[in-house]
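Mods, move this if it's the wrong board.
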Amino acid sequence: MNWTVFTVFLVVWILSGLLTGLWMARRGHDPRWTIISVILGPLFVPITLERIERVPRPVETAPVDRWGTTTTEPGGLRVMVGYDDSAEARHALQVARRLFGPVDGVLELVAVVSYDDGTEPDSEVLDKARQRLTAAASAAEGIPVGYAILAGPPGPCLRWFAEDQHADVLVVGKRGRGMSTRMLGSVAEDLTSHCPVPVLVVDPAIGSTPSDVDAPTLAVRVPAEDIPDSRS
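Not the wrong board. Structure tokens:
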């Protein structure tokens, strides 16, 4: 047996499967597919092409009054918050309530799961997402709150839903350290670069103690077409 040829063949087999599995996970599918893809190698490519979904989709929604309508009361804002129950997401929700609650805002908490978990009604991931959103919505006293669970990659899901539901602003927490459960890191960059809805990114590094809780660091991205031309 030519061990050089065998080694090259094995490396190509594993790499082709690994890259395919990672690409599938990046497109919003369960990362556990990567294990199967490494075993099947290039044989996994046609499976990926058959199973891959390209459009975000809603799994479950609990709407609030006026959410998604074309009009609101004077001064009211439809505020969407990307929520995965991380410390960053909880802080972003607190800031959203503090900033927009007093101006008659309504909140829509949005969680994102993989396409695979969104297809399984008994999925543990889906059930936990539902419980987290319900608990967070119940704690938002005095502000109309609804929630939605979407299936797909986090960034495109939030972008699509914010535009589809006519949100006035999308609020997310800044994570800034690699990949985590579902929300943020690369997702914040995706949103600030491509989202057609104004994006508010909340940095939890500031506002973590009682003395500075009212002074979170905010990064706001507003679509260029929404900025008045000072030359006119």
